[in-house]
Write a structure and sequence with these properties.
Rieske Iron-sulfur Protein; 143 residues; binds FE2/S2 (inorganic) cluster; 12 strands; mainly beta; four-stranded antiparallel beta sheet; 37% strand
Length: 143
């Protein structure tokens, strides 16, 4: 499957029902910030994750690329954006929202910091892998 490089569709239905195709963004509330690197295996550098304007301060969005690939993009601090592989490190469900600086997996209620991906609560033990990003114009892209 060819990965889209410009996810622009916003669809909450996508994460509730199990989206198959095309990329897309969702969610948000309030999130946090982070800083490190762990390439999201399937996403090549330059892949657009989200538009800055779509990522709320102290919240974030979940961008779905395919059934196995989704990314949590957050803005924990004004103008600071972070991104993490949204596949939960507990049993592999996709995290489905970013709220109050937490990335949430609803399967068993694991919560991860949107600053650094570390587990804050729930059964997951490992942090969410961080994805290195950069800003390109109005977009947040994979570095
Ligand atoms: S799979 Fe995410 S909390 Fe269990």
């Amino acid at each position: 499957m060819e990965l889209p490089t410009d996810p622009t569709t916003v669809s909450r239905r996508c994460f509730i029902g199990g989206c198959a195709a095309a990329a897309t963004v969702i969610t948000a509330g309030t999130a946090a910030a982070a800083s490190d690197v762990q390439p999201c295996g399937k996403l090549p550098p330059g892949t657009v994750l989200a538009k800055k304007a779509d990522v709320p301060l102290n919240g974030g969005v979940i961008v779905y690329f395919d059934d196995e690939t989704s990314v949590a993009v957050a803005q924990p601090k004004k103008g600071t954006y972070t991104a993490f592989d949204a596949k939960c490190t507990h049993q592999g469900c996709m995290c489905s929202e970013v709220d109050k600086n937490l990335i949430v997996c609803m399967c068993h209620d694991s919560r991860f910091s949107s600053v650094d991906g570390k587990r804050k609560s729930g059964p997951a033990k490992k942090p969410l892998p961080k994805i290195k990003t950069k800003i390109k114009g109005e977009d947040i892209v994979v570095a």
